[in-house]
Amino acid sequence: MKAVSKIYQSPEAALDGLLFDGMSIMSGGFGLSGNPESLIPVVRASGVKGLTVISNNAGADGFGLWMLLETRQIAKMISSYVGENKLFEQQYLSGELELELNPQGTLAERIRAGGAGIPAFYTPTGVGTVVAEGKPTAEFDGRTYVMERWLRADVSIVKAWKADPEGNLMFRKTARNFNPVMATAGKVTVVEVEEIFEAGTFDADCIHTPGIYVDRIVKCTINEKRIEKLTVRERESA
């Protein structure tokens, strides 16, 4: 029997049949690096609402997950950084948007645990702060730790640099921060990729995410690579 291809012809086709109201979505990226910028507009156009979105941040003004905030499709964000986004701030302070704030390393580990099938773990990060409120704590070797639960999602949308038809992925630089762990923690993982290579092209030692975690692949239609915050200084005289 011929294997079903993982490669889809458009972002719309890649997300077809996966989106529904009230679902959870993991969205890769770190700042504006590695955002699934071809797939987010498809989520917006679908009109699904009441979303719980798990992402390091919520984009920046006019870009990334900001697009879903603008249309009020996100009900809850599970994030670690919410700066550089005035719309996020407005919706949170007005009570429109629920926020579950995580230390950045804790967020990454919760996602990794979800992909590894580990329902909970203990960390010292956040003990004695608002982060630990309402969570179980325990003492190990004389130090207090707070229990954190795994994170999983109905769909993970991920951006990679290179893929082959089997879904083996390679990421580039900062885009590797959250995308690889999110690829493991979605019930369905959809990857937009800059380049698709023939099977057998990749050296196995260079693969960051094995294809077993990837369900659908589509070539990017948007690759803007924006700068989130441009900082410059005058050139010193020779």
Task: Describe what this molecule looks like in 3D.
The chain is of the alpha/beta class. The chain has a single domain, classed as Glutaconate Coenzyme A-transferase (3-Layer(aba) Sandwich). Helices cover 19% and strands 26% of the residues. It contains six helices and twelve strands. Strands 1, 2, 3, 4, 5, 9, 10, 11 and 12 form a nine-stranded mixed beta sheet that branches. Strand 9 (153-163) and strand 10 form a beta hairpin. Helix 5 (104-116) packs parallel to helix 6. The radius of gyration is 19 Å and the shape is globular. The N and C termini lie far apart (69 Å).
Task: List descriptors.
single chain, 238 residues, alpha/beta, Glutaconate Coenzyme A-transferase, 3-stranded antiparallel beta sheet, 6 helices, 26% strand, 3-oxoacid_CoA-transf_A
Short description:
The protein has 238 residues and is an alpha/beta fold. 19% of the residues lie in helices and 26% in strands. The chain has a single domain (13-219), classed as Glutaconate Coenzyme A-transferase, CATH 3.40.1080.10.
Which CATH architecture is right? 3-Layer(aba) Sandwich
Helical stretch tally: 6
Alpha-carbon distance between the termini? Answer: 69 Å
> Describe the biggest sheet?
9 strands, mixed
Mean pLDDT: 94
Secondary-structure element pattern, one letter each? EHEHEHEHEHEEEEEHEE
* pLDDT < 50 runs, ≥5 residues: none
- SS class: alpha/beta
Going by CATH, what is the homologous superfamily?
Glutaconate Coenzyme A-transferase
CATH topology: Glutaconate Coenzyme A-transferase
GO molecular function, one term: transferase activity
InterPro entries: 3-oxoacid_CoA-transf_A, CoA_trans_fam_I, NagB/RpiA_transferase-like
Keywords: Transferase
Organism: Sphingoaurantiacus capsulatus
